[in-house]
Amino acid sequence: MALVTSSLPFLPYGRQAIDETDVAAVVEALRSDLLTTGPRVEAFERALAERLGVRHVIAVSNGTAALHAAYHAVGVGSGDTVVVPAITFLATANAARFLDAEARFADVGADDGLLAADLLERALADGGPVRAVAPVHLTGRPVDLDGVAAVARAHGAAVIEDACHALGATYRGAPIGACSRSDAAVLSFHPVKHVTTGEGGAIATNDDTIARRARRFRSHGMVHDAASLESPSPGPWYYEQQELGYNYRITDLQCALGSSQLRRLDDFLARRRALAARYDTLLAEVPHVRPIARGPEGAESAWHLYAVLIDFAAVGRTRGEVMLALRERGIGSQVHYIPVPAQPYYRRRGADPARFPGALRYYERTLSLPLFPALRDDDPDRVVAALAAVLAEGADHSR
User: Fold this and answer.
1) What gap in Å lies between CA 26 and CA 256, rounded to an integer?
2) What are the domain boundaries of the chain?
3) Which residues does the annotation mark as catalytic?
4) 265-398 has which fold?
């Protein structure tokens, strides 16, 4: 790893924003009687449901657990197929495999990395019936939910939004997570996300059955409610395991932090949007670099990431060289994501990355720059100046 030569603070591509109100909330939870499965879990779920405008929120231990539970709750099982975009984090596909279902990949736009209706139609025509489709709101930009959902419904598939990047985003006036066009949406509260619980996730849905199945799944498949038991209850200790579930519970400590963070979500979003606007202005002057396409009309990004497309061949440097040179200047960066069909596990299962030219073209050019609420007003200037200098050095060397 290259040494950091800048005297300025290192800027990672993302990080949490914790203040004293968050610390106080967690300390209060630590001093309470219940550290898990207590009132703070339900309070966080209620607050999040109100924010999203959705009937049910089921908080779980992480975003991957949320995907697993959501797929299960809509009936994905052995022998089924879930369509996921080729550009996403591994968990979107892996959660289908956890249920012994297959992940079938759909190509994405070369300039935005997003699933679109025509690309979904092509993937759905490439094989047998599909149980569910999981559109991903990559970097915080909503996909065209009207188009994608219409295609999925025409093929009898459930729609599970992977909204792990998109808390606070909107699509045609509705919050992402309201599930106005989907069966469920999945959120993540990892530290680099808009709101953090350390680790954590949630399933949002307006469907009572999906909510009931997800809640049962997160706690070993157990049922305590007398009205839901298959046999009469002999006493207050009694419970039944009615299906196979997991221990995907989230703690009161985490939910205390999440509730505190959620109260500042609007501030976080405003800050991210202001920083993104500054990046847009500055990058307009940098050759061979442009922001990724913004997504469909009527959508507002939550700005989880600020990703750009760089013509590395034109500047005469590889992406690895650029990332290392930025790190030497105190600037972190990341790639979101390697196409999942290119991963050895999925290649061994028959995936061919060459069948996804949009994903490959997007991947070969993308780079995520620092974006988080604690960035200073002039930090985007520093980042873009460093990037421009690194790319200019490459162009000079290639002459």
Assistant:
1) 6
2) 20-262, 265-398
3) 193
4) Aspartate Aminotransferase, domain 1 (3.90.1150)
| 273-326 tens-digit pLDDT | 999 999 999 999 999 999 999 989 999 999 999 999 999 999 999 999 999 999
- Average pLDDT, rounded, for the chain: 96
CATH topology for the 20-262 domain = Aspartate Aminotransferase; domain 2 (3.40.640)
Residue 334 burial (CB < 10 Å; 0-12/13-18/19+)? middle
Contact 162, 315 (CB under 8 A): no
Nearest one of 157, 201, 151, 198 to 177, comparing CA atoms? 201
Cβ neighbour number for residue 358 with a 10 Å cutoff: 23
Using CA atoms, how far apart are residues 173 and 166, in angstroms rounded to an integer?
A: 14
- Global pTM value: 0.96
Q: Which amino acid is at 278?
A: R
Q: How far is CA 236 from the centre of its chain?
A: 40
Helix, strand, coil percent values for the chain (each to nearest 5): 40, 15, 45
Q: Compute the half-sphere exposure of residue 33: CA atoms within 13 Å on the CB side of its CA.
A: 2
User: Residue holding tokens 């999203």?
Assistant: 52
